[in-house]
Amino acid sequence: MQTTLGEFIRAHRERTTPASVGLSGGGRRRTPGLRREELAQLCEVSPTWLTWLEQGREVAASGKLLARMADVLQLSAAERGYLFQLAERLDPQHDDEDGVGDDDALDTMVAAIDAPAYVLDRQWNAVAWNTHAAALFGGWLDVEATAAQRPNLLRFMFRAAAARGLIVDWEDRAHRLVAEFRADIGKHAGDAALATLIADLARDSAEFQALWTSQEVVGREGGLRRFQHPRAGELSFNQVTLHLAKRHDLKLVMLLPA
């Protein structure tokens, strides 16, 4: 993978003209592109380090550095995504994606799914859901989609009496949900909106506070979900969770018949 990353960087370095980044193109050049020393200077790293990276040696490239390199090399969105994929790093640009998107497209997507489905943002607010989900989650999603405050899954789980009656094995599910949430938010836990949510939940729910303090992390985002619905009776679903390709802060949750 490191060799592939280095080859990709070198190819795009050689395609980037000095004039396009504000440098003089004078002097004899093997290729019309940037010299390694020039790219290193523009990215504020040493030429030796960049040489090692292009050669596929085991050197670590931070997300911030890769973002700078993507800008200098004028990579397209697809090329930038590929760069970060090869480097196995998160793109810092995704940190600013909140609130950017087409709400109508999200609504259309979930409405087309013939099963309970909803989209969660990084705070686990529901930003879109279909009628199947609203019918299942009374006390959470049975609100107007245009409501000023987005319905939050964790607030429902730990604040709503309806959640304890609806969700079979509530204690076990609450335990896993908090551990999944910690894994999901990762380095973003200190962001203002998330910090406020966590503080509010810890203040209002001793159970949440104990689970959050335990520092447990799990990555499971699917599996069997069981409910005791007040009208439909016992229901079972297999949860499938997908992250949106262009909005890494959003994920689609589908509950398919078990």
Automatic annotation (TrEMBL):
**GO molecular function terms listed in the Swiss-Prot or TrEMBL record:** DNA binding
Q: Please name the SUPFAM superfamilies in this protein's record.
A: lambda repressor-like DNA-binding domains (SSF47413)
Q: Which InterPro entries match?
A: Cro/C1-type_HTH, Lambda_DNA-bd_dom_sf, MLTR_LBD
Q: Which residues form the HTH cro/C1-type domain?
A: 8-80
Q: PANTHER family, per this entry? A: BLL4672 PROTEIN, BLL4672 PROTEIN-RELATED
Q: What is this protein called?
A: Helix-turn-helix domain-containing protein
